[in-house]
């Protein structure tokens, strides 16, 4: 009996552990990269971002840039000082904390008029999942013993 439970526990770990070690790298905009007239809201919608994952902004250096901003600036497209920009054309941002994150292009009016802005929600990393019911609760005692408990409690 105990060894059977142990086997189940090991099987669960075997499934979960590879996911813990794996961080995902997202190329923003996929093949299109970081550019104007792309629907980044739609791009981000079906993706799950977690702490430890990476965003890669790919573009021709000089044409665009990347600013990490807050929600107000994102909505307003207020361009921050140039020295805060990422400008390499292959900018990698590691998602370090959970929560809402915003990125805009600061070149010309790409943010305000061409939709070059990305908002995502970053979840906790795999290693610290939300509390879930432990597997042992699903292997509850058989109905006969539950009946026995209710009788003894009477
Ligand atoms: C957002 O960033 C701007 C520019 O850095 C700053 O002035 C503003 O106070 C920030 N807003 C919030 C809600 O943090
Ligand atoms: C956002 O835009 C509004 C209206 O244009 C302005 O009043 C406000 O100061 C702007 N906020 C920031 C953070 O730039």
UniProtKB/TrEMBL annotation:
UniProt-listed SUPFAM superfamilies: Cupredoxins
Localization terms from the record: Membrane
Family annotation (InterPro entries): Cupredoxin (IPR008972), Phytocyanin-like (IPR039391), Phytocyanin_dom (IPR003245)
GO cellular component: membrane
Record PROSITE patterns: PHYTOCYANIN
Leader peptide range in chain numbering: 1-23
Keyword Membrane attached: yes
GO biological process terms held by the UniProt record: response to symbiotic fungus
Annotated stretches, region: Disordered: 130-154
Compositionally biased intervals (Low complexity): 135-146
Keyword match Transport: yes
Domain of life: Eukaryota
Gene3D superfamilies: Cupredoxins - blue copper proteins
Protein's membrane topology: Single-pass type I membrane protein
Gene Ontology MF term list: electron transfer activity; metal ion binding
One Pfam family in the UniProt entry: Cu_bind_like
UniProtKB keywords: Copper, Disulfide bond, Electron transport, Glycoprotein, Membrane, Metal-binding, Signal, Transmembrane, Transmembrane helix, Transport
Phytocyanin domain ranges (all copies): 24-124
Name used for this protein in its record: Uclacyanin 1
């Amino acid at each position: 009996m105990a060894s059977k439970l142990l086997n189940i526990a090991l099987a669960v770990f075997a499934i979960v552990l590879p996911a813990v070690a794996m961080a995902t790298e997202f190329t923003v905009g996929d093949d299109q990269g970081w550019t104007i007239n792309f629907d980044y809201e739609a791009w981000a919608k079906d993706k799950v971002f977690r702490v430890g994952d990476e965003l890669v902004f790919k573009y021709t250096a000089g044409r665009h840039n990347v600013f990490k901003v807050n929600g107000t600036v994102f909505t307003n497209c207020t361009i921050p000082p140039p020295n805060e920009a990422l400008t390499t054309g292959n900018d990698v941002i590691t998602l370090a904390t959970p929560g809402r994150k915003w990125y805009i292009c600061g070149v010309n009016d790409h943010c305000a008029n061409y939709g070059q802005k990305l908002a995502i929600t970053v979840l906790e990393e795999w290693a610290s999942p939300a509390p879930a019911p432990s597997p042992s609760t699903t292997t509850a005692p058989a109905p006969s013993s539950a009946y026995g408990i209710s009788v003894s409690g009477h």
